[in-house]
Amino acid sequence: MFPNLTRSLLIAFAGLCALAGAPHDAAAQQKVSFGTDWRAQAEHGGFYQALAKGFYAAHGLDVSLRQGGPQINHAQLLAAGRVDFSLSSNSFIVLNYTRERIPMVAVAALFQKDPAVLIAHPGQGNDTFAALKGKPIYIGSDTRVGSWNFLHNRFDYDNAQIRPYTFNIAPFLTNPATIQQGYLGSEPYLIEQQGIKPVVMLLADAGYSSYGALIQTSHKLVNEKPALVQAFVDASIEGWYDYLYGDPAPGNALIKKDNPEMTDALLAYGRGKLLEYGIVDSGEAASTGIGAMSNARWEQFFQMMVGEDVYPKEMNVTEAYTLQFVNKRVGIERKR
Which end of the chain is more exposed for a tag (fewer CB within 10 A), N or C? Predict the structure, then answer.
């Protein structure tokens, strides 16, 4: 997945070694760079809230929050040592690093449910995953090598159904028979603004067990600077509790500063869906705190994908993540 990374990795880890070996000044804030997976939006709200409300600063961190986009791959920039942490959209990205023997590791899963959805028109009989078998679906290239494998496994979808998705909802709007992929807090809102109340099916509700919004960093940083990693994870979790259960205005203001195309209405819609569907605070997170992960869930997802020949069965899934920094109920008292 990441060709010709050898030279970049050598440069990256030389830089990380230098960072790890630098003298620590307890009085000074440690500079940290964090790259998200897309343009600033409600799905990044907790991170922006942590920055706006000073949670990162309170943990001794000077965080540079860098939004992603169609031409920006922060996962690759992390592998090249250009950022300290990156946000991975799903468990596939994390496991792909391990498959390619790139020493990166997930340290927290801010989303217990991946917000990936399939969207259909109402009144067409396309209101269950099973009903979509054999029907054309607009699917992007990343999804084809990701959650499409789950749909194939669970509902017997086949590649003949795939139509290229270009992140343009116009084909959906003009053809009632159309089905497309989407993101819970984005495409459904845009479609609703055009007068259509779509059928929205969350893959997680059908058993798709991928985590979402995973914080990743290098094994080197985990081993050499665990206190820095813990501080970043804890402050991010506190930001998410505050964004969901407090006043999201401070975080939203920074989101709109980074992404002027973002509107208050779309931010409110996206945050509302995170709460309504329990994307962030459900499952394991309800008892052990936002960011939770477990060995059992990683193993279950991995074995499902081994069955789809996505990963070799001899791959050590435990190299892809660590539970060292989560499941500590950090910030849970902020839940109201």
Answer: C
Separation in Å, CA 248 to CA 53, 120, 239, 267:
10, 31, 10, 9
Instruction: List the one residue out of 208, 183, 178 whose CA is nearest residue 308.
Output: 208
Rounded CA gap, 130 and 47, in Å?
Answer: 36
Amino acid at 1: M
Domain boundaries, position 66: 6-113+211-334
User: Of 265, 286, 302, which Cα lies nearest the Cα of 99?
Assistant: 302
**Residue of 277 and 71 predicted with greater confidence:** 277
Q: pLDDT tens digits for 79-132?
A: 888 999 999 999 999 999 999 999 999 999 999 999 999 999 999 999 999 999
pLDDT for the residue numbered 13: 39
69-78 in b/e form (b: 16+ CB < 10 A) is eeebbbbbbb
At 18, is the secondary structure helix, strand, or coil?
helix
Within a domain: residue 1? Answer: no
Kindly state the tokens that stand for 248.
């999201």
pTM value is 0.89
End-to-end CA distance of the chain: 42
Could you tell me if residue 184 is inside a domain? yes
State the pairing for strand pair 116-120/179-183.
Answer: antiparallel
Bridge pairing between strands 137-139 and 199-202: unpaired
Any residues with CB less than 8 A from the CB of 330 and at least 6 apart, and which?
Answer: 233, 234, 237, 238, 289, 291
Q: How many structural domains are present in the chain?
A: 2
